[in-house]
Amino acid sequence: xxxxxxxxxxxxxxxxxxxxxxxxxxxxxxxxxxxxxxxxxxxxxxxxxxxxxxxxxxxxxxxxxxxxxxxxxxxxxxxxxxxxxxxxxxxxxxxxxxxxxxxxxxxxxxxxxxxxxxxxxxxxxxxxxxxxxxxxxxxxxxxxxxxxxxxxxxxxxxxxxxxxxxxxxxxxxxxxxxxxxxxxxxxxxxxxxxxxxxxxxxxxxxxxxxxxxxxxxxxxxxxxxxxxxxxxxxxxxxxxxxxxxxxxxxxxxxxxxxxxxxxxxxxxxxxxxxxxxxxxxxxxxxxxxxxxxxxxxxxxxxxxxxxxxxxxxxxxxxxxxxxxxxxxxxxxxxxxxxxxxxxxxxxxxxxx
Amino acid sequence: xxxxxxxxxxxxxxxxxxxxxxxxxxxxxxxxxxxxxxxxxxxxxxxxxxxxxxxxxxxxxxxxxxxxxxxxxxxxxxxxxxxxxxxxxxxxxxxxxxxxxxxxxxxxxxxxxxxxxxxxxxxxxxxxxxxxxxxxxxxxxxxxxxxxxxxxxxxxxxxxxxxxxxxxxxxxxxxxxxxxxxxxxxxxxxxxxxxxxxxxxxxxxxxxxxxxxxxxxxxxxxxxxxxxxxxxxxxxxxxxxxxxxxxxxxxxxxxxxxxxxxxxxxxxxxxxxxxxxxxxxxxxxxxxxxxxxxxxxxxxxxxxxxxxxxxxxxxxxxxxxxxxxxxxxxxxxxxxxxxxxxxxxxxxxxxxxxxxxxxxxxxxxxxxxxxxxxxxxxxxxxxxxxxxxxxxxxxxxxxxxxxxxxxxxxxxxxxxxxxxxxxxxxxxxxxxxxxxx
Lengths: 352, 437
Description:
By secondary structure, chain A is an alpha/beta fold. Helix content of chain A is 25%, strand content 29%. Chain A folds into 3 domains: 2-120 and 162-178, Rossmann fold (3-Layer(aba) Sandwich); 213-265, SH3 type barrels (Roll), CATH 2.30.30; 270-346, Beta Barrel (Elongation Factor Tu (Ef-tu), domain 3). In chain A, a hairpin with a 2-residue loop joins strand 16 and strand 17. The longest helix of chain A is centred in the first third of the chain and has 20 residues, at 92-111. Chain A is globular. Chain B has helices at 21-27, 29-32, 43-63, 76-92, 125-133, 149-166, 182-186, 211-221, 240-243, 294-332, 359-368, 388-392, 397-400, 414-436, and strands spanning 9-10, 70-73, 116-120, 137-139, 193-197, 226-230, 249-253, 264-268, 336-338, 349-354, 371-372, 403-407. Helix content of chain B is 41%, strand content 11%. Chain B has a 7-stranded mixed beta sheet with strand order 2-8-7-6-5-3-4, with helices on both faces. Chain B has a 3-stranded antiparallel beta sheet with strand order 9-10-12. Chain B has a two-stranded parallel ribbon with strand order 1-11. Chain B has 14 helices and 12 strands. In chain B, helix 3 (43-63) packs parallel to helix 10 and helix 10 crosses helix 14 (414-436). The longest helix of chain B has 39 residues, at 294-332. Chain B is of the alpha/beta class. The model of chain B is unreliable at 97-113 and 168-190 (pLDDT under 50). Chain B has 2 domains: 9-19 and 311-436, Aspartate Aminotransferase, domain 1 (Alpha-Beta Complex); 21-306, Aspartate Aminotransferase, domain 2 (3-Layer(aba) Sandwich). Classes of the chains: A alpha/beta, B alpha/beta. At the A-B interface, helix 2, strand 3 and helix 4 of A face helix 11 and helix 14 of B.
């Protein structure tokens, strides 16, 4: 098969390329230039591109760089900033997978005559009754299936995840065996376009949205403290609220951007029986019965049914509210069956 | 090891050219036989120095200057930087590095009143970056990619009238143009535009710039202004000696005309002040310290000699091949836009935009088909960046995103053109099939 491997310069995608070469595929590597600015996580910095190039050289495969910077600003960074301005907590990695890696890149790969695209994500590909599913990676600590819930049958049919059956330790062993220079390179952790040196997420949002100072109040409306930027606050957050020490931890339960007001309450106030969602997608057919729902990258899945007609998750047991904008992924066992984006408003007919 | 396809149509000569046989041959003895440091005191050193002086004579002829006005550098970028930063710091009376690069990457200027600097919007980054870091102004270009003379005149006049308003004392007629006259130079602080840089031929579109007219407009406003021209793309195709005769500073780079990489030259006319970027042994009239790249300099001169001998015939031959290529593509590929008028371009340059196509994808398919070309400029990561040249010409980002530069050279053959004519229509059609979907 002629395979285009997305190579970030990290160890996972490098080993993915190496395994495909070993299997005898006709492999070409590509590094996406997504972000021209400064970043210290550096997923698309020049030095990471250089790492990818040197790995490709070692493997004897051609390496290209595609500049998807315009699309990335438009479809990932822009919505990330706009989302925060609207009081949401968007997941930029999900947006990047959705619009860049598994849309724009796959379209280009097809146009260039490739049979498949491969990435170094820690997930496996499974076939269920002739239908494809993303399956959790073997290494649960590294599993990335949550950020890939949006893949459809058309995409899955042309995707390869060569390292999903390996633990991270095994990936590094393979890298060493292949003589890859980046075998011991640390994993990237944070959002690639946000530099920790420049105040991290808070600093990034402040630079783009300005300060939006506000007050922190309790359920009775008593002002408890002040925050520098309401837009940087997330539902469920408990740190950085300038509340001082308190016997009982308090959590953000509501964000009122229009009135620059953050409401805090106790843990119980965060819990809800239903969770409104939008943009529901399914890997294949919609699942009517219970699914396990994961609401963060490494959260514990909890059982719910998806009420598609009312765009709502109905939890079996009350669960903490999910910050609007966050992705929720639906599983059956270790198979991804779909997902959605948490929204703010509860369907009126379900309130009660 | 990676292997190159055996049959390759190399159409990226504006990026770099193959070393011509004359240069390759001339460089050989400089590595193992005549290798002494030219500043040495013995016979081999003198022999080396003679080779450099011979090379200087050839370059002077090619560039239309006196031999002692040729400064050998490490290439086009250094020549451009030496011209802009070097002349600026001469006027400002400071060593360039005294004005240090701040953490944010901007040039923190030591002198309170910066000297006015202007360049065109389509300059190579080696000119654009230094000019912008020094707070200079940028002159726009027409839709045809030629420097906008009205805009230039506007900038010059605005600067002069501002300078007149600020002038508190008499400014010496030749202030700023004389090397070492830094006291007078300092008083020039408010004397309008001191340095104007316009390239002789653009590296993307190939458009030849009217530098003689530029000189006229600039000197009408300020007779003391110094003019620089980046002639890096021009030398293989144009009579630089004549066309750049009005320029005070002229940059060239050897590997664009059959010479080796890593060597270039800057013409610095005798009455033009330039402060060095590198300090040390004082080579090249003190303007470029560091042991000479002897083999490189000798190779560059051999290439320049070859160019002087064959340029007239090559311009005719390559120009015909270029016309065949462009006419053929326009005839066979619908939605092809030729950027700017061909009559205004250097003979080796073909520059096109294909509607509904992304250059990156096109270059990928062309490489598979054995055609090596380029789009706009490549960034250090190797990604294709949007063209600042096409943006300045008013092209939409979409159309500019489908640009293709096919640059021919002295070794380009009819077979190369036929390969490209066969490959490009197929590749464009394949990509459009997917972009329509």
